[in-house]
Amino acid sequence: MLEVQDLHKRFGGFAAVSGVSFKLEKGTIMAIIGPNGAGKSTLFNLITGHVEPTAGRVLLAGREITGAPPHEICRLGVGRSFQRTNIFPNLTVFECVQAAVLAHHGKGRNFWLRADQLYREQTEALLASLGLADKANSLAGELSHGNQKQIELGIALASDPDILLLDEPTAGMSSGETHETIALIARIAAERGLTLLFTEHDMEVVFSIAAHIAVLHQGRLIAEGTPDEMRRDPEVRRVYLGERS
Amino acid sequence: MSRRPVPWVLVLFLVLLCIPWLGSRLYTFIATDIAILALFALSLNLLLGYTGLVSFGHAAYFGIGAYTTAILMKTYGVPFVVAFPAAGIVAAGFALVFGFFCVRLTKIYFAMLTLAFAQIVWAICFKWNDVTGGEQGMPNVPYPDLGWMSAIPGLGSLRSGDHFYLLVLALVAVAIAALRRIVASPYGRMLSVIRENPERAEFIGINVRLYQLSAFVVAGFFAGLAGGLFGIFNRGVFPDFAYWTKSAEVLIMTILGGMGHFWGPAVGAMVLTLLNQQITSYTEYWPLILGIILIVLLFGFRGGIVGAVVALNRRLRGR
Amino acid sequence: MPEPSFLFGQFLGGLTAAMFLFTIGAGLSLIFGVLRVLNFAHGSFYMFGAYIAWQVMTWLGPGTEYFWLAALGAATGVAVLGVVIERLLLRHLYGREELYQLLFTYALVLILADSVKIIWGTGQLSASRPPSMTGAVQIFGTTVPYYNLFIMLLGPAIALGLWLLMHRTRLGRMIRAAVMDREMLEALGANVGVLYTVMFAVGAFLAGLGGALVTPVKSIVPGMDVEVIVEVFIIVVIGGLGSLWGTFLGAVVFGQVLAFGILIMPRFSIFAVFALMAIILIVRPWGLLGKPLSR
């Protein structure tokens, strides 16, 4: 589904990502973990076209997408959420999600129909599945942090992606919210047969839903495998799990 | 059965239609002025309020439209039916070229480049004597032939200024209706998404720069139409139409009325024109008053007049 | 082919104009560099400088030392005006969108322009050169008034002075840090608020000084504010907003393009500088010697 080949990114003299390669099979859930500054967000930005790689290739379903602009990558079926909440604060929740639905259906160029009449049911169904139905008419920017994260997920899902990249989907949430959100993501991924790639700092979350884990350290991929393998890997214990104990 | 809401816009339009029958040359004059400037300000708000682009050179397209119509009608004797749409098309063409470069820049640099292009337009109008009349501008732009209006029962007794007003009102109403439709369309929604958060907008699959450029062109088109009408109304076109202070003026109208609401800029155009009319009869220091109004606005009422009314209304209903 | 002495005269004329513009533009550029505010009212500060200088000269009477006193007094007066505006109003708009800052400075343009009309009327005023500088000198067959020579030397002197201020003083280090990264500066605990006020005052001072010094060669009229702000805007954009040497370069380029452009295509020399500015904004929006903004 998604393949990254020997990806490099240098910012000036600093190597943010160096020589990262991995493959993500369709329908799997993979987590990328690593300490702060390991290059997780940069890796995401490289995949989604927000940052152009210094070297290496990104393949989506066998097709090269390296260096393509973000809007094209999105249209190829990649959805993404951002680490810092990134929504449309002065629009209503309904409008936020519906905008993404409209864009996905290529309606953005239509300047004559009435936007608020289009794709209502689809948008409402998506909001309901996220538990946002009762907040549809609230301004997105006025809701709680947890709700905003849900909206962001909704915007990402609205373009009906085949693969979803979530950058710290539970950042800043209470442990209760974290559990709810993770259960929600797991459910939606299963329902839609999504391929999921996410970064997360909460190890409990990672080990509970990821089938596959990759460990990033100082821009390099130092280990990759099933959760059990990662628990046993001495290198991973040293650089990552070791830091936490 | 649900009650149909009162079609306020239609009511307003009908009221405005009656102005010539008040019999005052001044009223018709002011109403024409306001109608044209309202269109100009609304066109700017497509960029400012809907797409989040701060253009400090919107007068360029107003000026280009004005000169296009004036040159076509005066120099070449082209009828209004052709010269009027040409104003919008030529202005849109310039907006396409200038906008192509402008949308590559962000924030303050975008504002500066729009300003720079507008100054170039002004410099050309100011210096190219053979075509634009240079510093002296082009006086005596002919009125369109509105003789056919006198043939309509009930309009025969009106003056030609009244006929022109009715024409302006009809054309502006159509243009505003089109703008209204555009901002409520899926395309308009994409523009507001870009205003809110360009980075995120890119990742719902829209080409942000392309949309910004298209908005720039559409705004230029409507500004051009407004300019085309204004040149005739003013009985002449002058380089000042494209000067940076004119760009500032339309920005002030827009935020005075409130850029967060569709009708805000039109209200701003109306209030500013009426105030100007009133205050200049007492004092020559209109700019001073305008400056003070602007400062009060910037510090106290950032939603503009319409924003304040909406907030007040919400508060009253909340109780 | 025109005479070499004539061309040299054009060159010096362009240079004199450039140094006037540099004096004013350096202030605009510094204010933008530190406060990130494009100050349309900078032309109004210049105009106020000219009127105040004229006023002081009228009170004091002719005399070289009075001329300098008037110039200094005018520049200081404008600096004080700048401080008042920054402290009372402008500072509440930092961190808001550019639009509000731009319109605020435009409101100042309107208010200050009418204030000048109210205080000094709409007539044309003029001042004479300081008595010790009324003569002229012959250089390569061209007559150069002492006063123009002085202006040509003053520009580089101001540039050097500002450079020393920026690179040899603690204040200068803070200013440069603020230009590079204002959050960093705040984190270090420096009092950014005071720094902004000082910068605004220095910028206003330079505009006022430019206005005062221009009085012997230009007439003092309402409208000189809007005229000069357009020219100064061009030079700082060409050179790079926030860059001292960029402003200097921009001024020199502007002066020469106008001086020689008028020989080649009399009508379109102003168009040429606007086109130059647009090309630079397209290719290098941060100007010839400026640096891209880090936000």
Word description of this protein:
The complex is a heterotrimer of chains A (245), B (319) and C (295). By secondary structure, chain A is an alpha/beta fold. Chain A folds into 2 domains: 1-77 and 163-181 and 192-245, Rossmann fold, CATH 3.40.50.300; 85-160, no CATH class. In chain A, 38% of the residues lie in helices and 24% in strands. In chain A, the strands form 2 sheets. Chain A has a 6-stranded mixed sheet, with helices on both faces. In chain A, strands 2-1-4-5 form a 4-stranded antiparallel sheet, covered by helices on one side. Chain A is globular, with a radius of gyration of 18 Å. Chain B is globular. Chain C has a domain at 24-222. Chain C contains 11 helices and 2 strands, in the order H-H-H-H-E-E-H-H-H-H-H-H-H. Chain C is globular and about 60 Å long. The mean pLDDT of chain C is 86. Chains in contact: A-B, B-C. Chain A binds chain B through residues 48, 50, 69-72, 74-75, 80, 82, 86-91, 95-96, 98-100, 102-104, 107-116, 118, 155, 158-159, and chain B through 181-182, 184-190, 192-193, 196-197, 199-208, 211.
Which features would summarize this protein structure in a list?
heterotrimer; B: 319 residues; mainly alpha; two-stranded antiparallel sheet; 15 helices; 2 strands; 1% strand; globular; C: 295 residues; two-stranded antiparallel ribbon; 3% strand
Summarize the structure.
The complex is a heterotrimer of chains A (245), B (319) and C (295). By secondary structure, chain B is an all-alpha fold.
Report the oligomer. Answer: heterotrimer
Tally the beta strands of chain A.
10
Low-confidence blocks of residues of chain C: none
Structural class, judged by helices and strands of chain C? Answer: mainly alpha
| Biggest beta-sheet profile of chain C | 2 strands, antiparallel
Distance between the amino and carboxyl termini of chain C: 51 Å
CATH superfamily of the largest domain in chain A: P-loop containing nucleotide triphosphate hydrolases
Helix and strand string of chain A, N-terminal first? EEEHEEHEHHHEHEHEEHH
Radius of gyration of chain C: 19 Å
Q: Which fold name fills CATH's third level, the topology of the largest domain in chain A? A: Rossmann fold
What percent strand of chain A? 15-25%
